[in-house]
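Exercise 7b. C-alpha cells:
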C-alpha cells in the first residue's frame, strides 16, 4: 500500500474513532481540523516522540479550544508520523500557536523534523463513542 493510501486510511480511522466528550459538533459549530504529516530524523525519533507527547498532553489539558491531538506512526516506517488535530475554531488554533508549550515543542523539535506537510480539511462527520 502506498504512503498516500496509508495516510487516507489513518485519517479515516482517526475520524471514525475520534474521542472527545461526545461529538465535536455538540461543542462547536466551526471546528478547525488539520492533519500534520511529518518525517522525523530516525536517529532522533525517541526524543521527538517524548517532545510530542509532552506537548499534546499539555495542550489538551490546559487549552479549552484544543479538542483533540492524536499522533500515530506508520508501523513499517515509524519516522513517518501523522497528527490529527481538532480545535474548537480558528481562534482556538491561533491561540494554540502562541502558547508557551507549543513554542517549546517547535524549538525543541526543529532539528528533528525533516519535513512537515499541513493538510487543511473540511470536517464531514466528527463523532465519538467514548474517551480512550
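Sequence design result:
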Amino acid at each position: 500500500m502506498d504512503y498516500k493510501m496509508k495516510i487516507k486510511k489513518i485519517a479515516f480511522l482517526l475520524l471514525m474513532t475520534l474521542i472527545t466528550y461526545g461529538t465535536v459538533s455538540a461543542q462547536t459549530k466551526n471546528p478547525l481540523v488539520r492533519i500534520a504529516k511529518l518525517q522525523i530524523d530516525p536517529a532522533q525519533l525517541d526524543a521527538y516522540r517524548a517532545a510530542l507527547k509532552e506537548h499534546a498532553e499539555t495542550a489538551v489539558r490546559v487549552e479549552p479550544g484544543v479538542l483533540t491531538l492524536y499522533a500515530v506512526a506508520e508501523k513499517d516506517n515509524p519516522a513517518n508520523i501523522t497528527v490529527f488535530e481538532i480545535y474548537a475554531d480558528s481562534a482556538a488554533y491561533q491561540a494554540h500557536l502562541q502558547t508557551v508549550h507549543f513554542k517549546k515543542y517547535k524549538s525543541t523539535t526543529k532539528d528533528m523534523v525533516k519535513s512537515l506537510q499541513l493538510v487543511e480539511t473540511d470536517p464531514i462527520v466528527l463523532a465519538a463513542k467514548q474517551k480512550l
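Instructor comment: The chain has five helices and four strands. The first strand starts at residue 32 and ends at 40.
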